[in-house]
Amino acid sequence: MLKEFHSMGDKIFKDIIHPFQKIIFAVSNKRMNFKLFFTCLSLIIFPALQAQTLHLYGGSDRDQYLGCLNCDTFDKNSIWNSFGEYGNMLSSKSIWNSYGNYGSALSTYSPWNTYASYPPAIVDEDGNFLGYLTLNTYTSERSELELAQILCKYHDSIKKDLSGWYDKLFH
Question: Which of 1, 45, 70, 157 is the most exposed place for a label (fewest CB within 10 A)?
Fold first, then answer.
C-alpha cells in the first residue's frame, strides 16, 4: 500500500509539480530577462483591466466624428444610442441612416458600401488607427476587430434593433 502511494506521489511530482518548479526557476533565475517577463505579464493583465474606447471618423479626410463604437446606449456619443446624434437613424452623422452619407449602401463614405473609397476609420482613445469599418473586402486596412466584423456582417439587422444588439454584444 505504501509503495503504491509512493509511486503515485512520484507521478504527481513528475506530471504536475515538476513543470511548476521549472516555471518558478525560470522566473527566479538571474539570467531571466525580467523586462521581457514583466512586458509579457502586462500585455496579459492590462487589457483586461482597461478597455479602450473606440471611435469612428468619416469623410475623405476622416475628420468627421461619427460616434463611439463601444460606449453604452446612454452615452450621447454612442452609435448604440438611438436618441443620440450618432445612433439616430435620421441623423446625418449616423452610420444607421440609410439615406445619409455615412449610412447609405451607395455612399463612398459609408461602411455599408461594398466599394466605398472612404469608409470610416476606427480609432482608439489615444488616436491609434485600428482599421476601417467597411464591407469593402478590397480595402487593405479593413479592421480585423471582432466588433467591426460583427457590425459588417449583421448591420442590416443591428440597425433595426440597436439596444437588443448592444445587449447581445456587450452584456
Answer: 1
